């Protein structure tokens, strides 16, 4: 029943921006922290950004600090990742995720490709 559906990925040139969205359903969205992860070809899946249940606390991977912004809208049950000043190394499949009790939930991912 828990579903996370990412959207907003695409192809962009270096220096460009994209806004990723993750629509959540099947659980009380406002009661859980949310995260964005990414996985590049041949690489491990890595945490990109985290936002607390309240939306007050956020954390970012060093590689995206100052460029990416995570936010949430509890009315729309959506978590966002605003990506600015994109670099080729940002190319990856981006996933949103949450943990409900002991279970991790993941979306299907949205592809971001940054050309040089």
Based on secondary structure, the structural category is mainly beta
Mean pLDDT: 97
N-end to C-end Cα span: 40 Å
Number of strands: 11
Please bin the fraction of helical residues. Answer: under 10%
Computed over alpha carbons, the radius of gyration is 13 Å
Portion in beta strands: over 45%
Please give the largest β-sheet: 7 strands, mixed
Low-confidence stretches: none
Please tell me about this protein's structure.
With 116 residues, this protein is mostly beta strands. Helices cover 0% and strands 54% of the residues. It has no helices and 11 strands. The chain has strands at 3-7, 10-13, 18-25, 34-39, 46-51, 58-60, 68-73, 78-83, 92-100, 103-106, 110-115. The strands form 2 sheets. Strands 2, 4, 5, 6, 9, 10 and 11 form a 7-stranded mixed β-sheet that branches. Strands 1-3-8-7 form a 4-stranded antiparallel β-sheet, with no helix packed on it. The mean pLDDT is 97.
